[in-house]
Amino acid sequence: MSSSRHDQYREEVLGRANVADTPELVAYYERLESLGTAALWTVANKIEPWEPVPSSVPMLWRYDDLREDVLKALDLVTPEQAGRRVIYFDNPGRSDVSAAVGWLYSGLQVMGPGEVASSHRHSASALRFIMEGQGAFTNVDGHKMTLGANDFVLTPNGTWHEHGVAEDGTTCIWQDGLDIPLMNALEANFYEVHPDLSQAISYPVDDSTAKWASAGLKPAGENWSKPYSPLLKYEWAPTYEALSKLAKVSDGSAFDGILMDYINPQTGGPVMQTIGASMQMLRPGEKTKAHRQTGNFVYQCAKGSGHSIINGQRFDWKERDVFVVPAWLYHEHANASDSEDACLFAFHDLPVMRALGLYREEAFAENGGHQPILS
Amino acid sequence: MSSSRHDQYREEVLGRANVADTPELVAYYERLESLGTAALWTVANKIEPWEPVPSSVPMLWRYDDLREDVLKALDLVTPEQAGRRVIYFDNPGRSDVSAAVGWLYSGLQVMGPGEVASSHRHSASALRFIMEGQGAFTNVDGHKMTLGANDFVLTPNGTWHEHGVAEDGTTCIWQDGLDIPLMNALEANFYEVHPDLSQAISYPVDDSTAKWASAGLKPAGENWSKPYSPLLKYEWAPTYEALSKLAKVSDGSAFDGILMDYINPQTGGPVMQTIGASMQMLRPGEKTKAHRQTGNFVYQCAKGSGHSIINGQRFDWKERDVFVVPAWLYHEHANASDSEDACLFAFHDLPVMRALGLYREEAFAENGGHQPILS
Amino acid sequence: MSSSRHDQYREEVLGRANVADTPELVAYYERLESLGTAALWTVANKIEPWEPVPSSVPMLWRYDDLREDVLKALDLVTPEQAGRRVIYFDNPGRSDVSAAVGWLYSGLQVMGPGEVASSHRHSASALRFIMEGQGAFTNVDGHKMTLGANDFVLTPNGTWHEHGVAEDGTTCIWQDGLDIPLMNALEANFYEVHPDLSQAISYPVDDSTAKWASAGLKPAGENWSKPYSPLLKYEWAPTYEALSKLAKVSDGSAFDGILMDYINPQTGGPVMQTIGASMQMLRPGEKTKAHRQTGNFVYQCAKGSGHSIINGQRFDWKERDVFVVPAWLYHEHANASDSEDACLFAFHDLPVMRALGLYREEAFAENGGHQPILS
Amino acid sequence: MSSSRHDQYREEVLGRANVADTPELVAYYERLESLGTAALWTVANKIEPWEPVPSSVPMLWRYDDLREDVLKALDLVTPEQAGRRVIYFDNPGRSDVSAAVGWLYSGLQVMGPGEVASSHRHSASALRFIMEGQGAFTNVDGHKMTLGANDFVLTPNGTWHEHGVAEDGTTCIWQDGLDIPLMNALEANFYEVHPDLSQAISYPVDDSTAKWASAGLKPAGENWSKPYSPLLKYEWAPTYEALSKLAKVSDGSAFDGILMDYINPQTGGPVMQTIGASMQMLRPGEKTKAHRQTGNFVYQCAKGSGHSIINGQRFDWKERDVFVVPAWLYHEHANASDSEDACLFAFHDLPVMRALGLYREEAFAENGGHQPILS
Ligand SMILES: [Fe+2]
Ligand SMILES: [Fe+2]
Ligand SMILES: [Fe+2]
Ligand SMILES: [Fe+2]
Ligand SMILES: [Fe+2]
Ligand SMILES: [Fe+2]
Ligand SMILES: [Fe+2]
Ligand SMILES: [Fe+2]
């Protein structure tokens, strides 16, 4: 904490630190430093801001810009060399921790027919959202799941998992989402390679949906006590149907339109302890109002096109584009079409915010709820 | 507690009461009685049995036997006169409390086109299981639901509810299930007639399923905190599909075949606090093993035919027949068909058993798990 | 359900059953009866009362009246013969189920120095409240506890337990409280005699309080998951001190004065799943207002004297007297002294009411909250 | 993410990234960078370490070294200028976030008689542990608490709080513990100065302990639903008595001796959502074995003297010294005395680890459980 000045964070507000440097104080600060200590009032206003100012920046990554380079990775590295063949989203404000936004990592993984990545497990919770291709699969603790476009699949903290594409499939691309940066920040990240590099298929293929994807029903005698959803795969067709049904009986949210959270059907809570996810539908012509939330969001457009205004900045998106909303920045969404709905998949760290008592949200109060566009 | 003898419950077992009457003791017992007291050892073995012996008897009611008389009630009483036009199942061991089994009441309600029963609410939890007819509906706290055969609908403790049949419907019969006897036994039964005798339809028709019947998804921002399921109607088609899917990936239960519990999708728990329900499929040729459970069960055959052996007694059933399994009696089920599946709907008081720490089950240990048939 | 008349429960209220007998209907009822059924409207108003009317009657048992006969039992029966040497409270409205009130059993147990009752366990939850004598002890699952006057001790559902008095003790009397009647009503009562008739002392004596009776602290690494309190004994001295401290900072309840619930320190909830308990202090001169609650209460005066008015009837009590308040009857309490506080121990079935969603209470609205005294 | 080399994290292990730079790949990496992306395999082994390596260093701060400078702050700044007059512990590995260890902040606050710090609230959870002086107090949401040496007091997330020393008190020093760094890292830190700079005393002084510090009892009718303990102050005398009692019936933990967690008496869980605390007693001559845990610990010696070995480094401590154990470093403790016990207060972020499913611990397997001392 050596610095020529110690009074750079002064505020002229009652109740805040406001101590000017003097030679005597500077000498005092230097002695404190030699003892492995410092004076709180020299940093208090810095470490206790009035409200969060995220270090992440709002960003959008256009799939059109990335797809070719993602595919090119097929030629450049093998899964064996790379571990996982992924191009990740590198937020300029979070490059030091390889995050897309906040403490969330995300990237695009590409695999060709017959390829399989080695099995492993880690403390980071992970999910995948399928973007294109036929024949992708994931094996989570012996539960093999087949995957199609817009399917959403979990690989929770501590589960053995491996991904691949069937021999008779096509090149597949999916979005990975993990909280690797959070696990590192919390110094709780463990990683293991599966002793056999590959795990067995221990259950009938897609048994997870056969058992747990029946609304309002559960297999008797199955006492699920793990801290994540027993339903590991959420398919697109029933998800889109659910949104369509909800739209018929609900006005939805002023900020998000028709928004459904993916849940653990055994608890009604989030799918994993540290990452939640949702799918939302913006109805034809819908334009939501702005609000801000603690927590970070990674969006992928699953259907249609539109734009979002984040902290006054407009980002236009269409199917497969990815964008991020950093914590406590106002954001609002608009569907570009007056005839088609648009759907946004999102994953976020709200389960962390809620588990720790930190979730807040606030509506944008002025201008009818719409931000002025700054750029 | 006046009785000529006080030693009728003696047992010659160490640790059990075993006191013979003497003139001195009888005089003592009489003085105790005059003080509003009694000696525990005169009744201890009676009130602390080694294991439960239910007062209910196993029974089956054949729909063919009842249907005509149920329909006849249409001519005999109006809903206005009767409150509800129901013929109830009167277990010979439980006539004093009007129970079908244990503390569970059940009956067959019949309504004609255009009829509506008056709106009311009560502490008893209630459910309906539709047997025949077109156009039945229930309105629960303003949520109107349309009902078809084998649909299962809740009217939880404290909710305003009314039933009826649409003007353009046909005569409908459904099974009612309630825990009226339990509420009376617990001296906690309250009853109110709706001030207007009828309640408004406050939401889009069938909004409950539109919002809550999407597996693994929930409407964001809906924070359900009531002690019963927000999903009030469980339709037959998805229920049967769920059983069929489960049958493909699960061996099921040795005692119940392919059994799914109806659940509150927000908790994974039972649909109401005092009554649970399930639907089970006996696969072609399936014959389960016997077990016994604390708690009482009311079954209705929803599809196919077969038989159950309850406490050594065989009961043959087919679609729409109703039968009951009293607490702690061994029971096993068999599908009569080698080519078709058979389905049994059941409701029960296991949520009470579980909430109070009293649930137990035990497999029948002998004879390969099958009871000898006594009658 | 044979009866000459079937219309004895008619009510002239819209929404209630109101069907007069006719020859045709009576013939119909008889046919229904032959089918093991009956018409709901003949009993609907009986089984769905407007509000609970308890079958128990309010009662008070004076210790002065009972003590001599309780002690006499020492000469009349041995613990070996009697199992437990207890004189129980026999509510005239509940004699058929040996209950003191509702589904709660209670009695006075007496043991002499050196006597021990045989070890056993059962589904009924049990408690003891010590009234007089030195050297009483209870052993619950190997945890031996020493007991003094006004100490309260648990023997939860399923725990092995035995009671006795030390060789160098004196004759001891305590009040037993159990929910034997409820367990029987729910047909879930199991009873086992310990194979050795006696169990080992497996832990340091009074380890339960040494581990769990420290407010705001718990032994690290002890992960208690049983459905009852790990703290098995609640001693009188800290309980009385707790009430005294609370009285200094709280106005207390209008209905109960300074009332504290005994809790499971791991959950803040009731001590056992089916029985709760409390101790309350009526301050000098305190006279509470009347209210009524679902659930049944057994009181013992632990200190001082006063009276309670239950359903308009006055009951005067002093130390060691026992009285009961049946469900949904208004009750209010008064301390007889203007200088000393009075304390009432109570146990009740509110945990059952709450677990099943049936708890209600209501203040007496007239006359400044005080009932007219009828007797 | 610009760097001359991209293959610095290669590992020669199957399942790990192992891609050497080539001119073609470097060109590819540069294009990815221009798109706001990067290749996962260039950083995978860095961001997915095999196990945590904390950035914090083990440290001890001797009170003898600091006390004089802490007191000197009385002369250098007023509470009005400083906000709070605190010298904080500045871990060399965590200077950028002003943390003592991990994401935990800690410092020594000093106040003179009659001084009061202005009232405020923030998202950071906070606690104080009193070190010396008479007359200290804290007001939390209107609950004023008087504080003595070794008392532990909470100021949870979102509560208004202010500290001071009575006019007739003496200079007081206490240790502050907060998770300010975590709140900042999670970008969820809000800060408010109380509109009046001071808040009212809304309840009887010390009402929190009068209501909630009675073991196994709670004030009836108080339904506490806030996510932190209603008991806000944990006094030293009953805490030390609790440890002494536990020591008589428990062998304690091989790693921690007699260790008790401060708990929320309504849940049995940690005192706040993001910070837990404990007090432990090392019995005379006790020397514990080494283990390591996810989560970070700040210790203060509350009584006696001894040493701890952290990651092979020995730290000798006596009363009032503060030391820290970073995540996943082995640590063991020893009492210096063969006749007196030694007590360590600790606070930590285990509630965060547990809420997010990240808690792990591991015993040191070699050398009888004792680390070799490296320094
Ligand atoms: Fe992974
Ligand atoms: Fe949002
Ligand atoms: Fe009803
Ligand atoms: Fe069964
Ligand atoms: Fe017993
Ligand atoms: Fe009461
Ligand atoms: Fe603060
Ligand atoms: Fe440790």
Automatic annotation (TrEMBL), chains A, B, C, D:
Domain Cupin type-2 intervals: 108-174, 279-344
Keyword Oxidoreductase tagged: yes
Q: Which UniProt keywords apply?
A: Dioxygenase, Oxidoreductase
Q: Which residues form the signal peptide?
A: none
Taxonomically, the superkingdom here is Bacteria
Q: Name one GO molecular function term.
A: dioxygenase activity
Pfam families given for it? Cupin_2
Under the heading CDD domains, the entry gives: cupin_GDO-like_C (cd06992), cupin_GDO-like_N (cd02216)
PANTHER family per UniProt: 1,2-DIOXYGENASE PROTEIN-RELATED, CUPIN
* Protein name as it appears in the record: Cupin domain-containing protein
Phylogenetic lineage = Bacteria, Pseudomonadati, Pseudomonadota, Alphaproteobacteria, Sphingomonadales
